[in-house]
């Protein structure tokens, strides 16, 4: 699928590059969804684009995130997004050249973004210069990280209310904390990579050509605020884990106290029964008329008195 934003502000979709004529294609943005090798070859042939960044995007070198030459500037971003209620990541590639802006992403990520930002993409159609479109893309990225971080923070807050206010938790809450912690960590990692790309672009020749240096600095400031918010999410999750651990410790202490009380209340009568079950020849209590009821009373008192003692100590 290829989506095209023309300079006359019209929007078209085609299924294949065979439906396109480069000589008659006056566009601002060409977006390729689930792009194929044949489409990459078509772009190399007709627009002279360099796709080195897409071949090594999983590397950690600088060239896997930002690469420029005299004809183009190429960017690699990884976007966190929700897939089946869990956050995962997908790469997005942006290439800006004299011909226009080229976007490459997966259709599932594009569908997710279209559902969330329909109005923002309508605003994109109103832009008239490549500079403004690239600026829009950078601003959109910083806004997107802010939105997905706030969404994650909202979910963590709801979980905190369940645990702290309702004072209830189960294995599901523990699993949710683990999932949110992983998601927060993934967003943090991708935010760091995005910040790195922005800083690389500020130092590039293309930043000087297009005059977006100050705009990118403003986006970097926004990403710094988002990073602080992510750290707040980590702190809240740590507090929740400590709260649950404290509750588990309290419950275990209560159980141990109960076991101690039961053990004491049973062991003393058992001790008395054991003494009078030794069958020695000289045991005066065995020959008294009231020996049996006395032993029963002693056993009963030895069970009741510890119970009263622990009750006053508020162990029960």
The rough form would be described as rod-shaped
Ranges with pLDDT <50 over ≥5 residues? none
- Average pLDDT metric: 81
Query: How many β-strand stretches?
Result: 7
Which range best describes the helical content: under 10%, 10-25%, 25-40%, 40-55%, 55-70% or over 70%? Answer: 55-70%
CATH fold node name of the domain at 1-116: Beta Polymerase, domain 2
Oligomer: single chain
- The CATH class of the domain at 1-116 is identified as Alpha Beta
What is the SS-derived class? Answer: alpha+beta
Q: What is the architecture of the domain at 1-116 at the second tier of CATH?
A: 2-Layer Sandwich
How would you sum up the major sheet? 7 strands, mixed
Chain-wise SSE layout:
Layout: E1 2-6, E2 11-14, E3 27-33, H1 37-47, H2 52-55, E4 66-68, E5 72-83, E6 86-97, E7 101-105, H3 107-116, H4 118-124, H5 130-165, H6 171-202, H7 205-210, H8 213-275, H9 291-312
Structural commentary:
There is one protein chain. The chain is α+β, with helices and mostly antiparallel strands and 316 residues long. Among the domains are: 1-116, Beta Polymerase, domain 2 (2-Layer Sandwich); 250-312, Up-down Bundle (Methane Monooxygenase Hydroxylase, Chain G, domain 1). The chain is 60% helix and 15% strand. It is built from 9 helices and 7 strands. It has helices at residues 37-47, 52-55, 107-116, 118-124, 130-165, 171-202, 205-210, 213-275, 291-312; strands at residues 2-6, 11-14, 27-33, 66-68, 72-83, 86-97, 101-105. The protein has a 7-stranded mixed beta sheet with strand order 2-1-3-7-6-5-4. Strand 4 (66-68) and strand 5 form a beta hairpin. Helix 5 runs parallel beside helix 8 (213-275) and helix 6 (171-202) packs antiparallel against helix 8 (213-275). The protein is rod-shaped, with a radius of gyration of 35 Å. The two termini are 69 Å apart. The mean pLDDT is 81.
